[in-house]
Structures are given as structure tokens and as C-alpha cells.
Automatic annotation (TrEMBL):
The protein's enzyme class: ligase
Residues binding ATP, per UniProt: 300, 346, 370-372
Keyword hit for Protease: no
Protein name per the record: Probable alpha-L-glutamate ligase
Keyword Iron carried by entry: no
Residues involved in Mn(2+) 2 binding: 419, 421
Family: In the C-terminal section; belongs to the RimK family.
Binding site for Mn(2+) 1: 407, 419
E.C. code: 6.3.2.-
A cellular-component GO term for this protein: cytoplasm
Lineage: Bacteria, Pseudomonadati, Pseudomonadota, Alphaproteobacteria, Rhodobacterales
Record: residues binding Mg(2+) 2: 419, 421
Keyword vocabulary terms for this entry: ATP-binding, Ligase, Magnesium, Manganese, Metal-binding, Nucleotide-binding, Protein biosynthesis
Amino acid sequence: MTQFTLGWEEWLALPDLGLPAIRAKVDTGAKTSALHAFAIEPFGPAEKPMVRFAIHPDPQDPGLEIICSAPLKDRREVTSSNGETELRFVIETTLSMGERSWPIEVTLTDRGGMAYRMLLGRTALDEEMIVAPSLKYQQPQLSFDAYRAAPRLKQHRRALRLAILSREPGNYSTRRLIEAAEAGGHTMEVIDTSRCYMNIRAVGGEVHYDGRRLPHYDAVIPRIGASVTSYGTAVVRQFESLGTYCLSGSEGITVSRDKLHAHQVLARHRIGMPTTAFARSPKDSGNVISLVGGAPLVLKLLESTQGKGVVLAETKKAAESVISAFQGLKADFLVQSFVKEAAGEDIRCFVVGGKVVAAMRRKGKPDDFRSNLHQGGTAEPVRISKAEREVAVRAARAMKLDVAGVDLLRGEDGPKVLEVNSSPGLEGIEKTSGKDIAAMVIQHIEAKVAPKPPRTRPRRSTA
């Protein structure tokens, strides 16, 4: 039997928690091991509960703060050495010391006033381990400098608490995102956007839902319907103000939904698009038609979605009639040149994290110039050119969207952006491309909210 000697003070690592260095007191007089933790919060489904917490691993550096999460094993009453009983959360995690690693149970408690952030009790030790109470550092010493090493921290993947803002919990996109999140070991809550309400204040603002204050989420996925754009973006802004990463930012959603504003942004970034004109006065109808090169032309309501409110006028007279009808309804609209060479086809590029991860060509019905799948169009995989790929990425970036569906037309003088969608559906693109786009979205979120080297206060020299 090979003996493993420990001193009364040792360095160890808890890799499952993303903690590469902790200085611990080894105390055989204590039965239970304890880890310093604060802001402790259970989450997740009842059948698979999780717990998240924060820790200051270096007692001398309160600026070094790490967020951890782990499966919740139990909740038990623990009596401390001073006789106080406390109900604590219990987790199981891997302890690494020297060349050895083994699973241990740890209780979570606030040890902020203690010199050691971890207490290693006797139940964490096996019969091969001998504790020398008069010695310390019998195993290799570590350093808190390990927390400044970015590559090492980014390798750790912790369970994330995610939320999706959607009024359609059963639709394909929502279900796939939930499946992908759970497959990655995370938890996802579906929140009806319209039922959120907010406490707006300078310090400590909150989002409430169903009579309770919503907890802190690592990330929120907004899937805001067009009918609740204004209120939905207000909810997203509130999450942003709380420091939550939002997959689609409020600014990107707002701009992409306003077709006029969106085309102005695209033009400012010199991104190709069909020639576009806008006017409000009936007296300017003829001038607007001539600005886009005359008929045939396309008229679009500013708030149209899924191909609704989009009309092809093949003659000037037809265009004038449609414009008159829209103006009679006091509806704002755009007039665009018709890209005849596109032949009723467009390309949907799905952009995630600055990359086009999938693309499909959509074709309209024989008697319909619109290619939207919701209007009966069909889709097939397509290989896109380098120019099309670059334009799609630039359009998403111009809208400040990490995830976007960018619709392009293939014009004679290059790709032209029709629209940038801030909540692109997954069903068509996944089934057409055969790719797991939902998993790519979750992986992007993991990369965005992964632990980063924290800012720490410089140590004062003792020389």
C-alpha cells in the first residue's frame, strides 16, 4: 500500500469547478469538508437540481471572484466547531492534489472570515492518506497566479443558467434551443416576454415574472415576436442593464425590425442592397417610383414579416394604386427596385458569432415572387460565394447581432441584402442543411460567458 502524506496545510485544485488553486486546511477533527461560497443559488429542474455560487479563492484578493456551478447532491445540517448548526448545500466534485485525483463531498458555506477558503475533513481522506499535523505542504505547491492564465480558465465548462424569451414555448426553434442547452449540461427556462414586468431603479433593478423576481441568468436568448417588439426590447434592455449577456441585443432587435432604419444602417456600412426609396407625401409618389428605376418594383410595409405586406407592382399604374392604398391606411412603406435576375429566389445565410454556419436557397411558388417558406416557398442547400459570405457577416455586424438570418439576392453586380432577421427560425435551416444549428448557438453562448481572467488588485510589495 502506497502512503500519501499530507500536511495540515496543502494546496489543491477543484478542476470541475474551474478552481485551479485553493489553499486548504486539512483537519481530521472535522468530519465534513467545506468550501467558501457566497451568493449561493439553487436552480434547474427538480429531477436534476443544480447550484451556483461565487468564491474568492485568494483571501488576500477580494477582487478575484470566480462563479461556479455544480450538480446539487443534498442539503444537510452541519454543526461547526463552535457548536452552530447550519443547513448547507452539498455537492460532489473532483479534488486534485499532486498526481492524485479523487471525488469528494463538499458543503458550501461562507468562510469569508476564515484564513483558508477550504477545510478538508476526514471523510474526504482514505486509508492510504496520512496527515502529519506538524508539517505543511507535503504535496506540490500551487499559486493563485493560475487564475491569471486565460487559456486554462477557458477550458473549464460550467453549467449555465439560461432563459429564452418567447411567447411560443412549443415551437420548433424554442424546443431545439432547450434540447441543445440541456445536452450541453445547462438549464433553460422559457419566459413569456409579455408577462415580464420590471422594477427600474438606479441600483438593483429587477425583472419580475409570475409574482417572483427572476434570478440572475448567465445568458438570455430573446425571441421577440413582431407584435411585441417595443415591449420585448424594453425587457431585453432591462436584462442588459443587469449585466446579463443577451444573444440578440435590444439595439440590434430594434434596428432590424425597422426596415427603413435597417436599410439606412446597411447603406452607412456600404453594404449592397436593392435601390430603396421612402416618402410620406402622396405628391411624391411619382418621384419615388422614378428613384428606384421605375416598374417593376417592390413595395414593403415597414413592419412586415414573413413576406406579409410585400407587394410586386409590375407597372407604374399598379405601383401608384398600391402606394395610394398604403397611404390611405396611413401605413409607412418602402419602395425598392425589383432584382429580376434573382428569379424569385433568395439565399438565407445563418450567422453565428461572426461566421456563416449554414445557408439555403429559397424559391417561391411558381406564381409568387416571394421566397419565404411561410408563404409556401421551398428550400434547398446552397454553396455561397466568398463575397456572399462576407456580405452576410458584415450585415449582421452592422446590426450588432451575434446571431442573425441574413437574406440575400444574387444581383448582376453582386449580392444584395434584403433583410436581417434578429430572431431567425431554426426549422428550415436545420432541416435543409442537416446541421445542428441550435448546438452552435449554445456553444457561442458558452464562449461568450466563459470565465475570463478576472481583474485583480496589484499586490503591494513587502520589500
